[in-house]
Specification:
The complex is a heterotrimer of chains A (607), B (585) and C (310). With 607 residues, chain A is α+β, with helices and mostly antiparallel strands. Chain A has 17 helices and 21 strands. Chain B has 585 residues and is mainly α. In chain B, helix 8 packs parallel to helix 11 and helix 21 packs antiparallel against helix 22. The radius of gyration of chain B is 32 Å and the shape is flat. The two termini of chain B are 53 Å apart. In chain C, helix 5 links the parallel strand 7 and strand 8. In chain C, helix 2 packs across helix 3. Chain C contains 9 helices and 11 strands. The longest helix of chain C is centred in the middle third of the chain and has 16 residues. Chain C is globular, with a radius of gyration of 22 Å. A 7-stranded mixed β-sheet of chain C has the order 6-7-8-3-9-10-11, sandwiched between helices. The chains are: A alpha+beta (607), B mainly alpha (585), C alpha/beta (310). Chains A and C meet through helix 2, helix 3, helix 4, helix 7 and helix 17 of A and helix 2 of C.
């Protein structure tokens, strides 16, 4: 699976990741900065109106007020308001969202073509995406219209004249709608899982006619049993090899296998093909740290760039000492009682055609990090692209005639293991990225992984609810909905906005682009320096890039909160990732809520 | 006050009603009347018909596409643009499934946008296939591109360009790629259920060139019988494709080592195809329709007319020449008197200019014809000019598809000596590979003897690249065999000494010592084979023999042997990778 | 964004809050502005008021005179442009004062998807009342407003009068010391009106302070101890209802069930005390006269301060 920004372990991420100062400190710094800046701006604005002393006094009082509100927030009132929000949602036919969801599932067959290489991936990513869009849509409609509606028909009057704190009104609504979303999400989750399982469930038929005696093995040795292929269901069929009892596991196709058993009845043999097995996966990988050796065998941070636009993979040259080395830690015998499964996906880059019929071969070498001089050749292999190629590292294997014990000789005492991959063919290249090679620890429980994927959606939903409520504290319903949609879309394209904001995107801002169009300059040509261009560039910077940059860095990072990919590709969502996402969401939730309190406090609820 | 508001409302209603009138006229549907007279309908209906963008029957409406279109609330252009961007991202990030899913969505949104189908199919067949290392995968993706086009054709069954692309990818991509041997094999064995009609084809029709030809012919059928337009595509190239496929098929057969009857039939068919192509009436950008085979008859007519003109006053031409000669200066006359070989450069120039002045054009001749028949003569001149102009156009158009060359090649290859030569060369190559050198040598020599007959029969081919580069490769192979048999040079009775000599001049083979002197004396400007001519076989030989690093992209281009026809094809094929389709936005 | 209005009025600046004064406004003024910050309406001009514990205070005035604005300012629904509004000695923006206030808005703005019990329960929770207290209060209040028969119905099915009554119940859920009623009798039938007025008086008897505003003079006259008459955002008249009406040196006698003999006897009594019997029947609505005269006067001579009598 492609992981462009692999996360470090949670605590490392939170407090320090070596060169990185740690997310928590960045957050703290940002918050402090924003607060100080906000106070300064409001002090200056109030000073203009009331004079500096009075302004300071007012701001101090406001702060006291806010702390007071926070301190006196009563769970019972929050709960009452939440419950009201839930009741309101139900009254506003939130159930419609669910009906839409069911309708989408019913018609999903129209869009989805199960004849793809891995239908499970397609279906899982479809249900997860559909659910998240729907739930976010619901969250934003509920949250954006609720407060403005209350203000519009003045029901808010009976609430704010009770001893209710602003914090309670904002929090109550947010939590209430989040609760509705949670409930809906639970139901949708169960439905989608059922849908995917049910849709992908199938079997094939296999009859005596489809089978032939097994072909001879290497060296012309006759082998018992039969081989053949099943009928086609859902646009695929399986090759099967059965033992003499008529039992066997089919070859994988579309990412799953079937078990075949033979039943003899009235002297006739019938074959039963079982349900699709191993369809859903939740592989738990152990990722290593990747480093390289360059073509002269010296350590290097990166391999060679073969000219791809995408810098994800780094390449190593074949027929030279160049190699990619993964250092895995925490490799304990308990986790790998039967030896280690090494999963890999290697990209190939040829500089000459070579033999078209044959793939490019490479070698897997193991090393003990404590004793790096000694290398154990595990085996040579032919690179497989865009697919997981599994190599077994047995507990005991032979290298140069000597018996090697995996955990005694190769894995160091503190559980570290180096895996070195090299390309054997001169002037051909292997491309690798860190997540391309990992130790397969075990198969997780697919439905738990699915649930974890839903947690990520849930986080997005809560954030959107919070944002919606906050916008609606000072905007009217439709406008705050638009603002929330903008926040959401911006959140999904955050990276793109950031690129635009930092001026990395080719062609510059709108002014520069306009200038280029009018003067027929292409994107990459250097602009001549004149008053006009300087003015244009600066206006781009101030009017467009600046705000875009700020927007990109204040929008919720919904893009990276999504874990759909893990679930769809059949990888366990690591606990670290999940906790990091939860922390990120909380870190965003808090300031948004505070902003909501402030805005609502500042406004007059009556007209 | 109330009255004025009432009046205002009244005015609004009237305005609305007035606006509805043009709208209703504009959007009137077309109706078939009781007596089968068809009313054309309003402008919108006409436009819809003209651009063939409406699904005319309910069965053609694709519910998913319609739903998605509705869901975008009229912003489907924007949505398609976003998706296009997404597709580009997916391609960059090597997310092939994501790319395909996105392409599906785009085409659901814009099913009648031909460029999307064509560009993305090309993208899949040409760019994505080569991202994979295993040729099975490459084949899969080439085929995905073809399937994509076929799906596109289902939505646009009046679009010859889509079928043309199917033919092109099936023929050219599969037949000329680096992996052509593998592709062609996989194509023959393919029993993909999603690949329509393929399983139904008889085994001997399951050749990528023949299938490509089939689609080209379907495209032509659309143009001819249903009046579809090929837009800006060059009609010559368009109509030449089936014949070219047949030729490529015949060549491919030879490369596969299939000769005998099948090879002969293939070339005979190719000749037939090419002849029919020559007889086809084809529109040109000059605004006239031409037949490529018309050229020779036209030129004959021109000669006939010139003859007629001369016959009016048989001595007139000579008389005019004499008059002019009299007007030449002494220098000029002297220069002309010197025999051609012995002129100095200055004399050559002077003589050349003088000669031009001595030439009498038909018009000049006609102007001097006696009063009585002058009009007749001028009429003849007019005819000749017209004929000549037409011939010139045809001559130019012929070059576009290298008409003459292929005509001759077809005629040549189907002869027994040529077929024998090809077969023998193939066998000799095989023998050489098995290092059965004496047998290889004998077979080569037999082949060359046969080829000699061909060259004698078609003398124009002698110094052409034609014989193809494969003959030169054979000579090179023969030379290597000789070397390994410790013979330093070609034997005296070597049948293709002229070809070999040309090769030595170009340093295409090492020059044996006894040729050193003679070759050195040869003037440099001998008709040389285009250096690129080595492309096809050269790369192949490299790949089999010493493995020199040949950049992948370069060998992918292929088929330089067909240089001139090839050169305009890339322009017809979808644009280069970096260029988005011109009308995509 | 303009600096927060919350900040403008300092809370409870009064040095020694007089315990018997429940509501106090000082120079309270409110200007409505449009989106661009331009002045649109001066809804309230420098209002000084005091409402004392245990009295029923009426705010009187034609539509748009600033009655509702005053109430909203006192409740903290609006922020004053100038001056102060103090309730129980605390600034109007202070949330804690709400513990002791009950508010019945002009039209009961309640959640129509809740039923009577749920409504009261919800508001009870907002006062952070424990469950058993809530249950008890809900029972009492529903009984008091005579809605036992409809307590399980959603409010959307309620008639206007029922909504009014549940609104009142809602306002009393916390057993407030100060009850603010905005047009308490609108939309009620005559019987409902009577009951509402009885209730208000009953509340005073329990020692509550009531602030009500109305444009229905009869209501005010019937129940209020003191009134303030507002017109175009300005205070025009303030004083006890009886003393305000007493100025005219007029005695009204109203009685029922008197025989003609009794009437003669009364006439005799009046004559004996050297009085003149003005009329014995159809008493005129004197507050209405007062009100109309004030309105006419202020329209004739704008800007004149009202006379204030205690």
């Amino acid at each position: 699976m492609v992981l462009e920004n692999p996360y470090p372990p949670y605590l490392e991420w939170l407090f320090s990741a070596g060169y990185n100062p740690g997310a928590f400190w960045i957050w703290l710094l940002t918050m402090t900065g924003v607060i100080v800046f906000g106070l300064l701006v409001s002090w200056i604005l109030s000073s203009v109106r009331y004079g500096p002393m009075k302004a300071g006094d007012l701001i101090f009082k406001a702060l006291v007020n806010l702390t007071d509100d926070l301190a006196h927030t009563s769970p019972r009132r929050v709960f009452a308001l939440s419950r009201l929000a839930v009741q309101e949602s139900i009254r506003r036919r939130v159930i419609a969202a669910f009906i839409v969801f069911v309708v989408i599932l019913l018609f999903a067959g129209w869009f989805l073509n199960p004849g793809k290489t891995d239908p499970a991936e397609l279906y899982l990513s479809f249900v997860l995406t559909a659910t998240s869009y729907l739930i976010l849509l619901m969250a934003l409609i509920l949250s954006a219209f609720s407060l403005p509606a209350d203000i519009q028909n003045r029901t808010i009057h009976t609430i704010v004249t009770k001893p209710v704190r602003t914090t309670e009104i904002i929090l109550g609504r947010t939590l209430g709608f989040a609760a509705v979303g949670t409930g809906l999400l639970l139901v949708m989750g169960v439905f989608s899982y059922g849908f995917v399982v049910r849709t992908l469930d199938h079997t094939h038929e296999l009859s005596e006619d489809d089978l032939d005696p097994r072909s001879a093995g290497p060296g012309g040795v006759a082998r018992p049993g039969k081989e053949g292929q099943t009928t086609v269901t859902r646009e695929h069929r399986h090759q099967v090899v059965l033992d003499e009892n008529g039992h066997g596991i089919s070859e994988p196709a579309q990412g799953h296998v079937h078990e075949v058993t033979a039943v003899t009845r009235d002297g006739k043999t019938e074959y039963r093909v079982g349900p699709a097995a191993n369809q859903f996966k939740a592989r738990v990988p152990v990722y290593g740290k990747l480093s390289f050796l360059d073509r002269s065998g010296r350590p290097a941070e990166k391999g060679i760039n073969v000219g791809n636009e995408w810098l994800y993979r780094s390449y190593i040259e074949g027929g030279t000492p160049a190699a990619a080395i993964w250092r895995f830690s925490g490799v304990r015998p308990d986790d790998f009682p039967d030896g280690i499964n090494l999963d890999m996906t290697i990209r190939v880059f040829r500089t000459y055609k070579g033999d078209v019929e044959k793939g490019i071969s490479g070698s897997i070498t193991l090393r003990n990090p404590k004793n790096p001089k000694v290398k154990y050749l595990l085996r040579n292999f032919v690179a497989k692209e865009f697919a997981i190629d599994r190599h077994k590292i047995p507990l005991k294997f032979k290298d140069k005639g000597a018996e090697v014990d995996l955990f005694r000789d190769v894995v160091s005492d503190d559980g570290e293991l180096d895996v070195e991959i090299g390309c054997l063919e001169r002037a051909q290249f292997f491309g690798v990225a860190k997540p391309d090679v990992y130790l397969f620890k075990r198969e997780g429980t697919p439905w738990i992984n699915f649930a974890k994927g839903y947690v990520a959606i849930w986080l997005q939903m809560v954030l959107i609810t919070a944002v919606g409520v906050t916008w609606s504290t000072f905007l009217n319903g439709p406008v705050s909905m638009l603002a929330t949609i903008a926040t959401m879309v911006g959140g999904y394209f955050r990276e793109f906005l950031d690129e635009l904001g930092r001026g990395i995107a080719l062609g510059g801002g709108p002014m520069e682009s306009l200038y280029r169009i009018l003067t027929q300059n292409n994107l990459t040509s250097e602009l001549e320096r004149s008053i006009t261009t300087v003015v244009l560039l600066w206006s781009d910077k101030l009017l467009f890039r600046g705000p875009l940059y700020i927007a990109a860095h204040t929008l919720p990072d919904l893009e990276s909160l999504s874990d759909v990919n893990y679930v769809a590709k059949g990888y366990n969502i690591p606990l670290d990732v999940l906790t990091i996402h939860v922390t990120m969401a909380v870190g965003y939730f808090i300031p948004v809520m505070i902003l909501g309190f402030l805005f609502f406090k500042m406004r007059e609820v009556a007209k | 006050m109330n009255r004025s508001s009432f009046v205002r409302k009244l005015v609004y209603i009237v305005i609305i009603a007035l606006l509805l009138v043009p709208l209703s006229i504009y959007s009137q549907p077309s109706v078939v009347g009781a007596n089968n007279e068809v009313s054309e309908g309003g402008k919108l209906a006409q436009l819809r018909k003209e651009y063939q963008i409406s699904e005319s029957s309910l069965g053609e409406i694709d519910p998913t596409g319609e739903t998605i279109k509705l869901a975008t609330l009229g912003l489907r252009g924007v949505a398609a643009n976003l998706l296009w961007h997404k597709a580009e991202q997916a391609k960059m990030k090597e997310d092939w499934d994501g790319l395909q899913a996105t392409l599906d969505q785009i085409t659901k949104l814009e099913p009648h946008f031909i460029t999307v189908w064509r560009y993305q199919a090309w993208n899949v067949s040409y760019n994505i296939s080569v991202e994979w290392d295993d040729y099975h995968d490459r084949y899969f993706w080439v085929k995905e591109g073809i399937k994509f086009l076929l799906r596109g054709f289902r939505y646009n069954d009046h679009e010859p360009r889509v079928l043309y692309d199917v033919g092109w990818t099936t023929g050219q991509k599969m037949g000329t790629a680096d992996e052509k041997v593998q592709y062609r094999r996989l194509f023959r064995e393919d029993d993909d259920e999603e690949f329509p009609d393929h399983r139904l084809r008889p085994q001997n029709r399951r050749d990528n060139w023949l299938v490509g030809q089939e689609y080209f012919e379907k495209a032509i059928h659309l143009v001819e019988d249903r009046g579809a337009s090929i837009r800006r595509q060059n009609p010559l190239v368009f109509f030449s494709e089936p014949a070219m496929c047949q030729i490529d098929y015949a060549i491919a057969l030879a490369e596969d080592g299939i000769f005998e009857e099948k090879g002969k039939v293939a070339w005979t068919d190719a000749d037939g195809y090419w002849t029919r192509f020559g007889q086809r009436s084809i529109p040109t950008t000059f605004g006239i329709e031409i037949r490529l085979s018309e050229y020779e008859p036209l030129m004959e007519q021109v000669t006939a007319v010139a003859k007629k003109l001369d016959d009016i006053e048989p001595d007139l031409r000579q008389k005019i020449i004499e008059e002019r000669r009299a007007k030449l200066t002494q220098d000029e006359r002297d220069a002309m008197d010197v025999p051609q070989q012995k002129r100095t450069p200055e004399q050559m120039r002077v003589a050349f200019e003088a000669q031009i002045r001595l030439n009498v054009s038909m018009k000049e001749l006609a102007d001097r014809v006696g009063q009585a028949r002058r009009e007749e003569a001028q009429k003849l001149v007019e005819d000749a000019v017209k004929l000549q102009e037409r011939a010139n156009i045809i001559g130019r158009e012929r070059d576009v598809v290298n008409f003459k060359y292929w005509r001759m090649r077809c005629q040549l290859e189907k002869t027994d000596p040529a077929l024998n030569a090809r077969r023998l060369i193939y066998e000799a190559d095989e023998l050489y590979k098995l290092t059965q050198l004496p047998e290889a040598r004998r077979t080569y020599e037999e082949a060359f003897a046969n080829w000699r007959k061909v060259v004698d029969q078609f003398p124009e081919m002698a110094d052409d690249a034609i014989g193809g580069t494969s003959i030169e490769d054979a000579i090179r192979g023969y030379f290597d065999v000789l070397k390994q048999l410790d013979e330093p040079s070609f034997p005296k009775d070597f049948a293709l000494m002229d070809v070999a000599r040309n090769m030595m001049i170009r340093n295409a083979i090492p020059i044996p010592p006894e040729f050193m002197e003679t070759i050195g004396q040869q003037p440099a400007g001998q008709p040389a084979v285009d250096e690129n001519g080595e492309g096809e076989k050269g790369a192949g030989a490299n790949a089999e023999g010493e493995t020199q690093p040949v950049p992948e992209e370069k060998t992918d281009e292929e088929k330089a042997g067909d240089a001139s026809t090839e050169s305009d094809k890339p322009a017809e094929a979808p644009a280069k990778e970096s260029d988005p389709p011109a009308d995509a936005k | 964004m303009a600096s927060p209005a919350v900040l403008e009025s300092a809370p409870s600046a009064s040095p020694e809050p007089r315990t018997d004064v429940v509501i106090e406004t000082r120079n309270l003024s409110k200007i409505y502005r449009d989106f661009w910050g331009r002045q649109k309406v001066r809804a309230l001009k420098a209002l000084d008021l005091e409402v004392r514990r245990g009295e029923i205070f009426g705010l009187l005035g034609p539509n748009g005179s600033g009655k509702t604005t005053t109430i909203k300012l006192l409740l903290g629904l609006l922020f004053p442009t100038g001056g102060q509004a103090l309730v129980f000695g605390k600034d109007a923006s202070d949330v804690t004062k709400n513990e002791r206030i009950g508010y019945l808005p002009e039209e009961s703005y309640l959640y129509r998807f809740l039923n009577a019990e749920e409504t009261l329960d919800f508001y009870g929770r907002l006062f952070d009342m424990p469950a058993h207290v809530r249950r008890q209060r809900i029972g009492e209040l529903i009984h008091m407003v005579k809605l036992d028969w409809a307590k399980r119905r959603q409010l959307r099915e309620y008639s206007k009068g029922m909504t009014r009554r549940i609104g009142l119940a809602q306002a009393l859920i916390n057993d407030p010391e100060l009850i603010v009623l905005d047009e308490p009798t609108t939309g009620l039938d005559p019987i409902g009106c009577r009951e509402m007025k009885d209730l208000i008086i009953e509340l005073r008897e329990k020692g509550k302070t009531v602030l009500m505003c109305s444009h229905l003079l009869a209501d005010v006259q019937d129940v209020c101890d003191r009134i303030a008459i507002l017109h175009q955002g300005e205070l025009r008249e303030l004083g006890r209802v009886d003393s305000l009406l007493k100025i005219r040196d007029v005695t009204e006698i109203r009685a029922s069930g008197l025989s003609d003999a009794a009437k003669d006897e009364i006439k005799a009594v009046i004559a004996r005390h050297n009085g003149n019997l003005v009329s014995m029947d159809n008493p005129t609505s004197t507050l209405e006269e007062l009100f109309l005269s004030i309105v006419q006067e202020s329209e004739a001579r704008p800007g004149r301060r009202a006379r204030v009598e205690n």
